[in-house]
Each structure stands twice: as structure tokens, then as C-alpha cells.
Design a protein that fits this description.
The chain is mostly helical. The protein has 43 helices and 17 strands.
Length: 1021
Amino acid sequence: MVVKFGLLGSLVVHDGTELRPVPGPKVRVLLAALLLHANRPVSRDALKEALWGDSIPASADAALANHLTRLRRVLAAADGGTDARLRTVAPGYQLIVNEGELDADVFEARVRAVRRAHQRGDWEAVRREAALAEPLWRGTPLADLAPFSDTEGPALRVHQLVEARLQALEWSFDAELCLGRHHEAVAPLATLAGEHPLREGFHRRLMLALHRSGRQAEAFSVFHRLRRNLVDELGAEPGAAVQEAHAEMLAGHPAPDPAPRPATARPPFQLPCESEAFTGRETEAATVLALLGVRPEESRPEPETPGADDATARGAGPVPGPEGDTGPGGDGGLGPAGGAGGGGRSEPARARVVVISGMGGVGKTALAMHVAHRVREDFPDGALYADLRGYGAGGARTAHELLARFLSDLGVHQDALPEDTDDRVLLLRSALAERRVLLVLDNARNAAHVAPLLPAGGHSAALITSRQLLADLPRSARVPLAPLPESDQYALLAGLVGAERVRSEPEALAAIMAACGGLPLALHIVGGRLASRPSWPLALLARRLTPHQGRLETLAMGEFDVRRTFAMSYVAMRDSDQPLEREAARAFRLLGRVWPAHAVTPQSAAALLDVTEARAAVVLDVLADAHLVLNPEPDRYLLHDLLGEYAAQRDEEDTEQERTTALVRLLSWYAAALAAATVAATHETQSPPPLGTGTVKDLSLPEFADDDEAIRWTARELPAVRDALTRAGELGRSDIAWRIAVGLFGHASTHWWTGEWDACLAQAMDIARRHDDRLGQAWLHRRTAVAHGMAYRNEACLEHLRIALDLFSERADLTAQASILGNMAAVYLQLEDSERALVHAERSRDLYGALRNPRGEALILSRIADVHKMRGEPDLAAADYRRVIELIRGAGHGVFLATALTNYGDVLRLLGDRDEAFEVLAEALAIRLRMDDHGGTADCLVFTARAHHHFGEWDAARETWEWCLELAHRYNLAKRIDECLEGLKALASQALSSPSVPSPTVSPPSVAARAAASPAPADTP
């Protein structure tokens, strides 16, 4: 249903049949505030400010809700009972207003039509469009909503609308005078001049109308009255346009004959056709439109700033510049006698230059054409198009030849063209200065290629497409394109092939979309191939698009060829005369052949390329600027899937030995980076010996602020780590493979439950055994034991610890032996064998003491505390745990601290110290949640639930057991599932026979907090 909203005068709502009352001043202000931002979200704070200004009451939220409810009733009544107009959207509310429903929008569209007709000199059209605009004006906008209408935002909008109307009136009188209707114009102009005693535009036109009607004395009187008012009020003389009209009167020039519409040359319109299959890109298109200073018709609330009436101001109102500034401007044109128009003054708006960039095939030209066709009416002096051929075998077109063509298209005779390129640049800028022309410059190579073709000011604009980012192009804005999202890919294929056909084979469709990587070029090729072969099942084409099995060959059809498109970018860089670009081409090849599936950083790329980190960053940025790699987040660079496959086929300059050497450097970097992450995560004092200096040198490794950061880094890199381990095995580099697997120790301290570490350790052990790598086997047995111990696979853990102890004893490595003995003590504790646990803990303590290793001693002290706890000696255990916590607090080892706190809290439970027990358990739980440690979270919850049970807090105990059970099921923590079920069973029987006591001070987190919690393992044995 169509609802009419009126702002031009008092606020009104009309349902098509009758006016609908809007009751209450607050509801009226609320509706006006939403209409001023129609179809855009308005925050609750902004609405409260509109309603109450600076005096927002404490009850504002409740009052706003009440006013919104009343407004919804009004809107529903006007809209046939529907309640879809006013939507709740973050951060507030959005009023839906359809095209043609808001009088201010319709009025501004009419004013724009008047302007365009005025620029063409089509005076009949000016009169016609002005006559359609004027009846919409019912009076001063928002006339009944003071003081709201006097505040800054609404007052500015009112001013814009008033100025738009006055400018449209001035243009309409230009039409009257040019059509010889001098007598008819006198009376209304006299009224307007009286209402606006300082507005030169009305007075100038009134002077000319009187003069041309033979009423010279009255015309001179109007001039002198205007001059007196300007001098008295502003201390200024009338402007040039009024002075010229005065000179015409003094000269006694007769009225010109009414002139027919001038026979002007048709403005050039050179845009290629827009693709009928263009799909998506709504956000990018809106961004380009905004940067061009143009809004879609349905959402253009701002009129071009009126009031400028001199001959040099021919167009746009406020136009966002490339840095977001606003350039003043005005609409004017030639007056009826060929002189300037009325009285305002303006400065030229900044030139608008927008660069659409992206990889080959991502749809840059399609988006440019889509936008250019939409803004055609905003550039009435023409649209110039040129393919600059920045990428291609034929060579780029020069600025010299393109300047000649553009100047000729704009009416400059061939004989007047200068020979010098710089002189042609100046001539083009001069030709564009007084016009509204859109230049679409497609396929630019770099900033230098396109810079001579750009307007220097005024109201023309340039839309550029390039595979380069063109970050060095002055006074320009950039809109980089990413591959299409899945929803747009689906819509594009459905449009090309048919919705029913793509729906019928969802799995094949998903495979095709994955193979095309979101590139519109690839999708168009696929869609065209399927459309021309209606009998083909989608599965057939999906098989042909299998990566690295002829996919690029399949993605070619006639002139559309993904491989050739990519080659244009790569070959231009490979054959560049710039050494840095040639170096970037080599990096592109190595990434494709060596590491196509994973992101790199400047640090890892430095190892791959054998350069410094700073140099690697520069090379990667060159590739990113050319859109040969993606840069999804700071310092991470990734090959698009199809580009990676293309790069993998580029081997024209690099030998197999060079590629292998580069891969070894990268794998060695991963081994060293994982070792650094493990040290940061576990604070271990003994790490595997580094790789020999012949393998890698001067590596730039990541730095970690704490254990949490190190663990998160490893989790993100895990797919690449798994691949690195496999590649090391394929190269026969056991020394790298086992270091990679062992280096996952830090990550496994919280993510042991995923099974990733077990798989990596087993894979590395196979590699080490094949190459009889004794040192690697020693470390792998040691870490495999830890993995078993975390999962409570105690006998397997002891078996690997014994083998590791023998292997390290062969090497006389006392630190390793001390650590292994401590781990054996932990396993015996899990087996509830306190005697053996104590024996092994004391042997470990003695070795650490001899080695003067305080952190090792702290770890073993926690084992001894565990023994005291198991033996029923809580006082001794509590003293040991306190000492352990003192030693490690502040050391940055969250896992160790959380474990010690959990054990200490359990001992405090045994000692009956309820409040302190829950306090330390809450601290331990907070650490586990912060580190996304699901396994450790479950450990802590078990102890917390037991504490609640111990103190008779049945409700809190039940909630904690249920939370832990939910977590254990989600992450398949079998031991914890059993413990939770037993705990709930014991709780059910206990609660029946005992009254509940109040819940503890530290209650379990809410359901929302639980949903946000992430995983972590038990402490390292």
C-alpha cells in the first residue's frame, strides 16, 4: 500500500484516501526524525536527542518505547493494518519509505530535472518540470515542529530544501525570459524580490523582465534598491551578473527575440552495454556511487546546493571528495541574455576519481559499467570510455593518443590539437572544467598510465578499473573487489543456467562454485557452457573442474579464458623493467609451486624467499597491490585458489633445486616458530636443539606476549603445520619433521583433546624410524607420553616415558631425565599409586636441584603436593600448593597456574574453607575460559561441582555438573562424561535426604557464558 509522507510544510501522513492524524508533538517529532533519515538506521540516542535535546530525562528509554508504540499504530493504520514500516535494527530503528512516498524526495527529483533541462537550454522542459515541482511545496518544511526544526541537523535540511525551491524558481524565470514571456514574469518576480530583498538572482531577473517590457524606470529602481540593501546590510556591491544586467539596461539593448531551443551537439555516450547477467555487488556499487557524489534515486535526500547563479558553476551540490570532504558548488547557467545568472558565489568541487581494483576476472569492468549506466543522467555532458589495455599482448594505449580522442569527442577540432602531450592534458582539463562528464577508464596499468586523463576540478568524474590498487594516484578513492560471496555466486549461476537446474544437483553445484573460487569470469564461463549444453548434468562439469586436473583448461570459452586473464597480470610483472616487480613475480611462482594453499606472513615469506623480513613485506605488498595475492588481514597474504593453481604451473625460470631449497627454508621456519610458541606457552626450560646452521639462518620468528597468544597463533597455523610435517617427510627431512611435531606441545597444552597432536606425533615417529633418527625418536617418545597422559591413557604413557628415559639416559641428558621422572610421578598419581609417585617425584626434585632449575622444582613441588593430598594430608598439600602458586604467579604460564589453583581449591574444600576454595576455583576457571581451554575448563568444573556438593549446595552443584556434561559431550571427553553422570547420580540421592543451603558467593557462569566458552586440556603430566 502506498503511504504519502509530507515534510514540505507541516508534517502529514496520507493513506491515499485521507490524511491520517499523528497525535502528540513527541510522536510527530519522532516521525520527522525518522523521515529525515528514511530507509537508514537511526540510533536510539539520536531519537532521544531529537525528542528532548540536551535535557534527556532519566525515563527517556521507557518514554521512547511508548512514543514508538504510538507511532507504529499510526503507520499501521495508514498502511492497511500492516506493521512492517518501522523496523528495529541495530543500533535503533529504521523507517521504510518507498520511492515516491516522501514529498521531499519527489520534490528534489523534480529540481534535478529542472537543472538538467536548464543546462541543456531546453526552456520548455524547464517550465514543465518546474511546474511539476512547485505544487509539492506547501510551505516551510517542518513548519509545525519547532524547536526540533531549529536544531542543527533538521535546520540544515530545511535550508537545503528552501534553497532548492528558490533555485528552481530562478531557473523557471530564466525559461520565461528566454521564451519572451517578459510581461508575465514581472509580477511573480516582484513578489519574490520583495520576499527576498538580498537575493540577487530574483532582482536580476526582475530588472531584465521590466527592461524588456519597456519599463526602464522601474528596472533601474529595482537595481538601486538592491544595491542600497546590499551596501547597508552586507557592505557589498551587487555581483557581476547583476552588473551585467545593469549594463544591458544602460546600453538600451532591446529585448532579444525568443530563441528556439539551441541546436547543440549530442553529448557523447560511449559506455559499452551492461551485462544482463550482472549480479550482486550492492555494497560496492553503493560505495562507488557515494564516492562519485551520486546516490540512487530512491535514497537521494540531498539536493545539489542551490544559490550559485554565475556562469562558471554548472552542476553538483555538495560532493564527497576522495578524503571525505565536501566541495561547494552551485547550479546556474546562462541567463536569458547570454550573461551570467543571479547572485550566489561558489568554488569548483573537487574532482571525483574512483578506482575499482581487483584480481583478473573478479568483475571490475562489470561493476564499473553497472554504476556508469546508473549515473548517466547525473553527467548530462556525456560519458567517455576507453580500454587503456594496461594488461595484454597488444601493449597499453598511450595518454597522447587517448587525449586526442577525448578532445575530439568533446568538440575540439583536430587542427586545434597541440602536439605536446602536456599541452593536451591542459586542454582536456579546460574542456572538462565547465562540463559534467563521466570518464570510464578501463584496465589501467598503473597511476602514471591514467593520471594525464583525469579532470583537475569541476564536476566531472572518473571511474577507473585496474588490477593494481593505484594507491599512489593522488586525490582518488579506492574500492577493491573480493570474490563473490556464495549467495551471489548461486544467483549468478541460477540466472545463467536456470534456478531449477542448479537446485536439482546441490552437491555438484557446491563443487562448481568451489572450483570457480567466486570469480565472476569463471562463473560466466561455467554458466555459458552449461546453458549451451542443456543435457549436461552439473556433476559432469564438476568433475572436469577438479583442481590441478585440467581445471584451468576447462575454464575457457571463446574470448573468455581464466588462464589468459591471469597471465596478463603475471607476465606484465615478470617482464617489467622494475626489479622489484620481477622479484615479486618470482615470489608469486614460489608461492604457487611451494606453498599455494596456506597464508604467509612477512616472516615466513622471508624464509621462503631468503630475504629479510622488511624486503619480504615489500614484495608481498607489491603482489597485493597487483591483486596477485589476497591480503585478508594485516600481515597475512594468501593466493586465491585459482591463482595458486596458475602460479603452480609457472616454472619457466626456477629450477627444481631452487624450489626444494626454498621449501626447506620455509619448513625450517615453521619448526623454529613452533619451538618459540611452545616456550612461550609452557615456559619449558629444555627445548630440542635447533636445526643446524647449514639448514637455516637468521630467521625472523613471531614474538608472543604470553602463553595465550602463542597457543592461538599455533591453532591458526595448524593446517599449515600439518602440511609442513607431511612435506618434510616427503623430502626425507626427519630432523625437521619431528621438531614440527614436538613443537606442537604448547598448543596441545590446551587442545590435546582434538587428537591433532597424537596424529602429528605418530606421523613424525614413522618418519624418524624410517631414517633411524635416535634423537628424534627420544623427543617423540617423550612428547607422545605427554599426549597419552593428558588423555588418561596411563599405561601407554608410562611405556613411552620409560623408552624416552632410556634414550635420554644414553645421551646423558639430565634435564630431560628430571622432566621425564616428574611426568612419571604424575602418571602414578593418576593411577593413585602415591608411593611410586613420591619416589619418582623426589628423584626428579634431586636432579632439578642439582641442575639449579627453579621452574622444574616448582613443577615437582606440585607433584609432591598431589601426593600429600592423595595420602590425606591436606595441610601439607595446601602449604605446597601455596608455594607453587607463589613461584609461578605472574610468570605468564596460565595452564600451570590454573592447574595449581584447581588443586589448591580442592584441598581447601577438604579443609572446610569454603569461601577461599570457591575464590581460587573461580580464578582457575577464568583462566581456562580466557584461553579457550575446553578440557581444562571441564577439569575445573569437576572440582567446582564437588565443592558445591561437599558444602551441600545442591542447585549450584547440579548446574555445574550439567555444564561440565554439556562440555564433555560436545568435545568427546569420555572420562569427564562418566564423572559428570556419577556426580549427578550421587547428587540426586544426596539431595533427597539433606536440605539445600544457599548458593556460593561465586556462582557458575550463565548459559550464555557457557556457550562462549572454548576448549582446553588437563595439565601436562
